[in-house]
Amino acid sequence: MDHSPPALEEIAPRRQVCLFGLSGDPPTGQSGHLGIVRQLASLRRHHPVPAGPPRAGPPVIGVGTGYPPLFDEVRILPVYRHMFASKRAAQAGGGSAVRRPDYFARLEMCRLAFSPRAVGEVPSAVVVCEDERSAYESVRRRDPPPEAAGTADLLEYLRGTEPGTDFALALGADAFTDLAGGRWARTGDIVRGVGGRFVAVSRPGNAGPGLEEVVQRFSNEMLSMDLGAEHVGWGGAIIVNVPGITDTSSSAVRALTEAGAWKNLGKLLEPAVADYVRENRLYCEDGP
């Protein structure tokens, strides 16, 4: 019997999925979260992905037509339980009379914010998933059970349930810098969990030589790591600049609603999300 490995052309292509986590409290529109997701789903690779281990560095990317998408899917993951107790308490209301959405309300707002109609025509599929909740349900069986599932726990869960998929992790510039500096729990496990694939999303004010230097240094460090034989294709970190994005934030939306400035929500949120916030009287003591 021939036990030689199959030829490269006989190996089934692995799915490429970019993970984008957010609180979704609430998810912002084109000048914020939606703009980031659209850009991630529009990325195309401008040269073939190598078939060997991820040692060729990050791919050459762009958004023009005529090239295959970098990702088969951009997966939106609303946070189920924050790792930090202070954020869990704030999201639960923290004793305030202001109405805050639970996980399922945030999940619904993400489905509205990233609906096919809102995202438009992009080469990658955009899907909102409950993987964060599923990962927590998986790790809560530990003794003692953790307060939350971390990113490394999430990746272990996903790799166990989707063995034919390569994952990449999209992070804001500040979060990526913290990860690259080793300030995340189980940084090494996170790097191995995505095969060294990271997308650093650049907003106005955090691009430039500082972020580029962090990305280059961290990419070089990852090339010397054992990322696992199952990972193929590209490895390293890439910077994605999102045109039209501003400093729009979920906290700015919450501040508007608490101040009663309901008419301004349409500038920061997709119409369906703004309607959901108003109809459910979120982020305020009294409805509009």
Walk me through what this model shows.
The chain has helices at residues 33-42, 85-91, 103-113, 116-119, 131-139, 151-161, 173-180, 187-193, 209-223, 250-258, 271-279; strands at residues 15-22, 44-45, 61-62, 73-78, 125-128, 165-172, 197-202, 236-241. With 288 residues, the chain is α/β, with parallel strands linked by helices. Helix 9 links the parallel strand 7 and strand 8 (236-241). Helix 5 crosses helix 6 and helix 6 runs parallel beside helix 8 (187-193). The radius of gyration is 20 Å and the shape is globular. Mean pLDDT is 84; it is low at 1-11 and 50-55.
Mean pLDDT, rounded to whole units? 84
Annotation, overall tally of beta strands? 8
The gross shape turns out to be globular
In terms of DSSP E residues, the strand content is 5-15%
Lateral strand order in the biggest sheet: 5-4-1-6-7-8
CA radius of gyration is 20 Å
Distance between the termini: 74 Å
Largest sheet properties: 6 strands, parallel
- Model regions low in confidence, pLDDT < 50 over at least 5 residues: 1-11, 50-55
How much helix, percentage-wise, in residues? 25-40%
Q: What's the order of the H and E elements?
A: EHEEEHHHEHHEHHEHEHH
Structural class: alpha/beta
Count of helical stretches: 11
